[in-house]
Design goal:
0% helix; single chain; 4-stranded antiparallel β-sheet; mainly beta
């Protein structure tokens, strides 16, 4: 079964940075557009960023544009999310999935906590 495993979360002060990673267990994921999503306490899961598989076009939610950068390394079957200038409202569990997301690929996510 194909798995996506997120890592890199943690506790950081406002203004700090973190880099999240998403490792896919199957090489076929290099053929998919991939995305990052997040779910804050008491809120619904929301889109954060996405990257295409071939020409590396990217898109971002308005709330993270200019602060977060999504990238991928298809040779390593890994997608990254560089998060800079973090804010307390970025606190959430972060998940990767295909874009658009598939219910079959939600993993456990990685928790990001930003203290003020």
């Amino acid at each position: 079964q194909v798995q996506l495993v997120e890592s890199g979360g943690g506790l950081v002060q406002a203004g700090g940075s973190l880099r999240l990673s998403c490792a896919a267990s199957a090489r076929t994921f290099s053929s998919y557009a991939m995305g990052w999503f997040r779910q804050a306490p008491g809120k619904e899961r929301e889109f954060v960023a996405a990257i295409s598989w071939s020409i590396y076009s990217t898109r971002y939610s308005d709330s993270v544009k200019g602060r977060f950068t999504i990238s991928r390394d298809n040779a390593k079957n890994t997608v990254y999310l560089q998060m800079n200038s973090l804010k307390p409202e970025d606190t959430a569990v972060y998940y990767c999935n295909t874009d658009p997301p598939s219910r079959n690929y939600w993993g456990k996510g990685t928790l990001v906590t930003v203290s003020s």
